[in-house]
Amino acid sequence: MNIPKQTSTRRQLCQVFAAALLMVSFLPVQSFGQAGADSQYPKVKVVTSMGDFVIQLDSTRAPLTVANFLSYVRTGHYSGTIFHRVIAGFVVQGGGFDVKGNAKTAKETVANESGNGLANKRGTVGLARSDAPHSGNAQFYVNLTDNDALDPTPLRWGYAVFGKVISGMDVVDKISQEPTGNFGPIPKDAPLTPIVIKSVEILGESHATTSTP
What we know:
alpha+beta; 18% helix; globular; 8-stranded antiparallel barrel; Cyclophilin
């Protein structure tokens, strides 16, 4: 099948950008909020049916991923979604399914920024994806432990970290202890009692989305 010229050009640009990202796979690790204005390290509050937690984002190291995440926040995408994948000692993952377990429509995928120097340590927040390196969109996860296997190496892409839980990690840990199994169309690792993300709001932004389902 012939590829339209526009699609081919876009693919070439993505390949160039991907190569550039892979070249910087081992930037020095930087602490979240170490320097810079609040606009570089925005904070969001995730309000769930089991309590709230706050994530500080790092747009200096993961500008595309943070912009992508905030676009979903501002449109209210996360309100009424669930944590659909919960594995104790690994991750809690959400943002992609509604309270009945049905997948929500997501926008275009974002380029993989895993080579940004931010590691998958306990409490960090990353962009979930399939096996394809540039397939992340709306789903995110919180690391429950240091998951070094999710970091990039010179031979493969990793999973892009773009934020860190700065308060309420006890809530995330509580979520991770819920019984899991099959839930609707989700075959495994889903909490048997849905854990709902009621809203995600950008702290300090007056027009942040705070509606609940």
